[in-house]
Amino acid sequence: MTDLKASGRARTAGDKRKRLMVAAAEVVHRQGVERTTIADIARAADVPVGNVYYYFKSKDELVVAALSEHTRQLDLLTDRLNQLADPRERLKGLVEAWVSQRDVAARYGCPTGTLAMELDKRDDGGLDAEAGKVMRLLLDWVEQQFRELGLPEPDGLALTLVGAYQGMSLLANALREPRVMDREGARLLAWLDSLEVA
């Protein structure tokens, strides 16, 4: 009986931690780091504020948790896309996934990109490099797809594609216009189709 109770507590603790990570990613994306409080994250996760400190000792630890959640979401997406046999189709699936988030992008921008920009402006530093690691994971995955297609300069093509996504997210957000994502996403899909293997 004691083992079952301990197992149940561990599951509950793991569930609370996961809820806090997901909530941190969502709330920080909507409000930004500086305007987000630990209480905001606790409320979104449906966890008592006092319990948050059991899992995360500071707001910065919650920001790291938010970045971990961004990494987890990216891993889920790329794992799903990796099921497609053709690397070009994987890249097109990535663009389609970005466009499917047009309303969120128009309201809040790219989750990782906006967080990276905000963290870069902080005096204390350090966390901006963590955001850069998430962006690097995306760039590396995109580069690998271009490499598998046998295209020259896959690293440059990856920068072009991810940069285009960051740009269209920024413009959609600045203009509060989701259709920017639709139009630019269609351009990216056409560009991917136009790339010829040497």
Strand-and-helix sequence, N→C? HHHHHHHHHH
- Rounded to an integer in angstroms, the radius of gyration calculated over CA atoms is 19 Å
Q: Using DSSP, what is the number of strands?
A: 0
Portion in beta strands: under 5%
Task: Quote the average pLDDT.
Answer: 92
Low-confidence stretches: none
Largest sheet geometry: none
Number of helices: 10
Distance from first to last alpha carbon: 65 Å
Q: Summarize the amount of helix as a percent range.
A: over 70%
Shape descriptor reads elongated
Which structural category do the helix and sheet elements fall into?
A: mainly alpha
Please provide a written account of the structure:
It is built from ten helices and no strands. The chain is elongated and about 60 Å long. The longest helix has 30 residues. The termini are far apart. Helix 5 runs antiparallel to helix 10 and helix 6 packs across helix 9. With 198 residues, the chain is mainly alpha-helical.
